[in-house]
Amino acid sequence: MPLKKKQLEHLEKRLLEERARARKALGLFDQRSQADRDSSDSDMSSYTDHMADQGTEAQEREKAAAFATKEGRYLYRLEEALRRLYADPDTFGSCHTCASDVGFERLDALPHARYCIECKRKEEATP
Questions:
Q1: What are the start-end ranges of the H helices in the chain?
Q2: Which residues span the domain enclosing 45?
Q3: Residue at 115 is within a domain
Q4: CA–CA separation, 1 vs 90, rounded Å?
Q5: Contact 115/102 with Cβ under 8 angstroms?
Q6: Do 96 and 15 touch, CB atoms closer than 8 A?
């Protein structure tokens, strides 16, 4: 059963809110990265930190990069969901595997979902 117009509007709003949040998070990552680069370019960079401090900073940069990668993938999924919604609202919310309804409750919780819960479970169970 296709989603109702009000449900589609609600999901569009959720997707746009999530996209704005993800963009903001990535923007903060960019700002922090730029600040780190600027501080390492300062005159004080000629003084070496203790090895433990350097290791901690490297670990923090790696964690931040992993976060940005994850957030970037999430943003991509949100953008794809918006494209699907705008391209064909009548089929938005249909499972990409079995074409059954994903379900409004699932989409409300995970607005970029492409699979019904059964197909997603099967996908995750496959090694």
A1: 5-40, 51-87, 104-109, 117-125
A2: 5-90
A3: no
A4: 9
A5: yes
A6: no
Model pTM score: 0.72
How many domains is the chain partitioned into structurally?
1
- Other Cβ atoms less than 10 A from the Cβ of 85: the count is 19
Residue 125 lies in a domain: no
In our burial notation (b when 16+ CB lie closer than 10 A, e otherwise), range 38-56 reads: eeeeeeeeeeeeeeeeeee
Is 10 domain-assigned?
yes
Residue given tokens 């090895």 in the structure block: 51
In a domain, 85, yes or no: yes
* AA identity, residue 82: L
Q: Tokens for 5, please give them.
A: 């117009």
Element spanning 99, H or E: none
Q: pLDDT means per 10 residues in the chain (127 residues)?
A: 92 95 80 58 53 67 72 92 96 95 95 95 88
